[in-house]
Specification:
The chain has 353 residues and is α+β, with helices and mostly antiparallel strands. The chain is built from 13 helices and 15 strands. Strands 1, 2, 3, 4, 5, 6, 7 and 15 form an 8-stranded mixed sheet that branches. It has a 7-stranded mixed sheet with strand order 9-10-11-12-13-8-14. α3 packs antiparallel against α8 and α6 packs across α10. InterPro entries: Acyl_CoA_acyltransferase, BioF2-like_GNAT_dom, PEP-CTERM_FemAB-rel, PG_Glycine_Bridge_Synth.
């Protein structure tokens, strides 16, 4: 675009509208190049969330003269048990506005607040990595863990703290092997077993199938076996030069053979060999076993800046397993037969977001 055309384009008004099916390719092209955007800003999340959970998504885009300057994926999660919220984005760790101009960011904020008020929600939530609304309510509960991947495999092994490295070598000693799966069958067995052990509801198998269908090669399942015995499995996302292990779980045997430790090492090794540069270990709640596990790998925790524009609510919601009022539920869930838990769980977890 020459200077005259660019100048004329900038005199055009910036408009905000809802993404249409015909916009998805352009939307994802913007996500790929916008510094603020993450894997969780991809257009495919609208299809996944609406089809897997039945929630209405509104993906807003700000454009000028046919060029996108900002995007904001939103979803209305409404239930009798957990309230009514407009979230960017449920079931995702990152969200909020991704924009290349301040005007686009401001216009998208304005549109989101108007939509939240029109839907009479309790609150509007942005799952941000960096705080952009100091006047909104905040929740200091989640952190994320990231580390650069060294181009040398052995250097990555040596970067793991000694005690954790010993656990990885234990898995190697037990002759564990990683396999890439084309479906989610073994993954779902390991994942559902793991979350049942923790006492939390499981997602439906259909949700994981949709992730594979919608995101294709950017959604990968790595399963760890000991001979013919299923040990552990992880579903990961790939975005630009990053790998993001997102859902993982292990069978009971995993503890005895360091299955989870080996699994994340095998994923890191494969990412190194593919030339990727960032291992995003994902978010964890402060004070949890998952938080401690990731710290043991030598990753530094970075607080996530989740922001809440209160609409009808007077306080930030507290829907998480660390809330003492959920402890009886967790203990009862752990005692429930896993087959029954896998039937009931998806009906509960779809409203948590």
């Amino acid at each position: 675009m020459n200077d005259m055309v660019r100048t004329n384009a900038m005199t055009e008004p910036l408009t905000v509208r809802e993404m249409a099916a015909a916009d998805r390719v352009r939307w994802d092209q913007f996500v790929e190049h916008c510094p603020d955007a993450t894997f969780f800003h991809k257009a495919g999340w609208q299809q996944v969330i609406e089809q897997a959970f039945g929630h209405r998504c509104t993906f807003l885009m700000a454009e000028r003269a046919g060029q996108i300057e900002g995007i904001l994926p939103l979803c209305n999660v409404k239930s009798l048990m957990f309230g009514n919220a407009l979230v960017s984005l449920p079931f995702c760790v990152y969200g909020g506005v991704a924009a290349i101009t301040d005007e686009a960011r401001a216009k998208l904020d304005e549109a989101a607040i108007k939509l939240a008020e029109a839907k009479s929600v309790d609150h509007l939530e942005y799952r941000c990595e960096i705080s952009t609304h100091p006047d909104w309510a905040h929740k200091e509960l989640y952190v994320t863990f990231r580390r650069d991947i060294d181009p040398d495999v052995e250097a990555n092994m040596l970067a793991i703290p000694r005690k954790q490295r010993a656990m990885v070598r234990k898995g190697i000693k037990f002759e564990l092997q990683g396999h890439l799966d084309d479906d989610v069958e073994r993954f779902f067995t390991a994942y559902s077993t793991s979350v049942h052990r923790l006492g939390t509801p499981v997602f439906s198998k259909r949700y994981f199938k949709l992730l594979q269908e919608v995101f294709g090669k950017d959604c990968e399942v790595l399963t760890i076996m000991q001979g013919e015995t299923l040990v552990a499995s992880v579903l990961s996302f790939y975005f630009r030069d990053q790998v993001l292990p997102y859902y993982g779980g292990g069978m009971d045997v995993a503890r005895d053979v360091a299955g989870n430790d080996f699994m994340y090492w095998d994923l890191l090794r494969r990412a190194c060999e593919r030339g990727l540069k960032v291992f995003d270990f994902g978010r964890s709640k402060l004070g949890t076993g998952a938080f401690d596990f990731k710290k043991n790998w030598g990753f530094e925790a970075t607080p996530l800046q989740y922001e809440y524009r209160l609409i009808k609510a007077t306080a930030v919601p507290d829907h998480n397993p660390l809330n003492p009022k959920y402890q009886m539920f967790i203990k009862a869930w752990q005692r429930m037969p896993i087959q029954l838990a896998n039937m009931i769980g998806p009906h509960i977890v779809k409203n948590l977001g």
